[in-house]
Write a structure and sequence with these properties.
Number of strands: 4
Structural class: mainly alpha
Number of domains: 2
Distance between the termini: 60 Å
Helix content: 40-55%
Order of helices and strands: HHHEEHHHEEH
Strand order of the largest sheet: 1-2
Radius of gyration: 23 Å
Largest sheet: 2 strands, antiparallel
Strand content: 5-15%
Length: about 180
Amino acid sequence: MTTTPEVKFCIKYLLEHGVDELNFSEVASSVSISDPEFELVEKPKSTNFYLELAEKLRKLWPSGSRQIGGKEYEWRDSAANLAKRLETLWKERLKGKNYSIDECLSVARRYLSQFENDTKYMMSVKFFIWKQKELVQSDGRIRYVVESKFADMLEGKADDDAVQNEWDELVNSENFGEGELI
């Protein structure tokens, strides 16, 4: 398919101005353009996504604070601070991964459900999203590592779902005959 200069101009304009249509990248990639200036770059999620997710995550955590070592720590943080953490998490770790708000909230609810009876080891929402940890190396230098229970659970969700589906099929199959399930 030959592409007219007008079509090339339109595609370039839309790419440069961050058109957020779900199928635009698919349409644009179907047009053969050999110029490197038309290389498709995945657009990062909008600030609205992070803010909306932050507000919803914030509401899942209990209000108030908890005591650790004689100090009080809030369970929640402001939606703006949480949105910044989420944006950083997507830039640093979840690059190119496309999770919906519902998937994210499902993971958070699953995490919180572990602590229904005892919140002693439950993380505050900001540390659930990501936490910077200081590691002392063998040569004495300090290295900082970012840990994210949220990202771990998001990335593992597909694996967990596959394992659960496999288990359900195995348990519900009628191939056991008269034997026992061990």
